TrEMBL record:
It comes from Lentzea guizhouensis. It catalyses: ATP + protein L-histidine = ADP + protein N-phospho-L-histidine. Keywords: Kinase, Membrane, Phosphoprotein, Transferase, Transmembrane, Transmembrane helix, Two-component regulatory system. This is histidine kinase. Residues 160-374 form the Histidine kinase domain. The keyword Nucleotide-binding does not apply. GO terms for molecular function: phosphorelay sensor kinase activity. One of its GO terms (cellular component) is plasma membrane. Its main location: membrane. The keyword Kinase applies. The lineage of its organism: Bacteria, Bacillati, Actinomycetota, Actinomycetes, Pseudonocardiales. InterPro entries: HAMP_dom, HATPase_C_sf, HATPase_dom, His_kinase_dom, HisK_dim/P_dom, HisK_dim/P_sf, Sig_transdc_His_kin-like_C, TCS_sensor_his_kinase. Pfam families: HAMP, HATPase_c, HisKA. It is found in: Cell membrane. The chain crosses the membrane at residues 12-35, 75-97.
Amino acid sequence: MRRRGPGLRLRITLLTTALVAVVGAVLLALGWVLVGRVFDSSPSFPAGSQVNVDGVNVDVTVLTDALTAAARQDLLRAGLVAFACMVVAAAVLAWTFTGRVLKPLHDVTGAAQRLSAESLGSRLRLEGPRDEVAELADTFDAMLDRLEAAFDSQRRFVANASHELRTPLSVVRTELDVTLSDPDADVEELRRMAGVVRAAGERAEQLVSALLLLARTDGIGLAVREPVDLAAVVESAWRAVRAEADARQLRTVFRCAPALAVGDPALLERIAGNLLENAVRHNHVDGWIETTVETGPQWSVLRVSSSGQLIPPNRVEELFEPFRRGVKDRTSQTGTGLGLSIVRAAVAAHGGFVQAVAVPTGGLSVTVHLPSAPR
């Protein structure tokens, strides 16, 4: 382990004491010099003059030198005592007040040492003057808030992903157990079981693919950046869901002008594909879908609106959470429940943003803003 030097409290105390010692030494030296100048500036007498001191005639020059030396000795003696007392007092006061000032830092350190995934609920909530230490404590509390929210989100995500993956596996195991336990199972029964197992496997594969795509786009930069026409992306994505839309007899309107955005073509097609898939699968028979692509000086805009179930406006934001399928229970619809989560993550990776509003008559309108390519 790397050895560390003295603590901050000790260093501040030593620095403060050293500064006081230097200042005291300078003042003592100035006093020494000033005492000599005082006697040097006293009235002068003619050379050879003598002064009677206690009945003894003493030369004026000798008397002046003796008085100067005595004054300097007194100054030095008193000054050294005062100097020592001042240094000791400075050290004690610096140690005491530095400890009080640094106490919040020790609280932050103690809280960080006690921190774990199970103890993210503790906060410093430092009271007192709003100085730099208080700002540090507030920043630490804010960091804990973000960490706690991230851990909670991760726990929910893992729990939901485990549930989603468990469902097709349970279906596979149940079908296998039922079929294998039937000694009279014929070819038709085996084919039926194989179809169910295949459908469950495809569902699990779709979920794993969606999870991998979400992990690849969430918080990670783009590997490819090039101009992409959003109108062409929408046309390509629509071909994948057109048959399903025709089966539901959905009325579609496309207002797609050429609009160049900068990004990864595959991810941009996934954004358009997820929005169109949601618009089709969460729609009702004889419903409608309206898709708009337009461009501007800063943003290229893709908007997909559709009819569907009535969504309370205050629950629209929940649709972007993983494993949400509409406002009903998450097992009530087909799909992986990661469509809009992937859309938000992919759009954020492109430097854009997503807005969604509930259609008053039922349904959802999602608008994606992506950086426009320079013309």
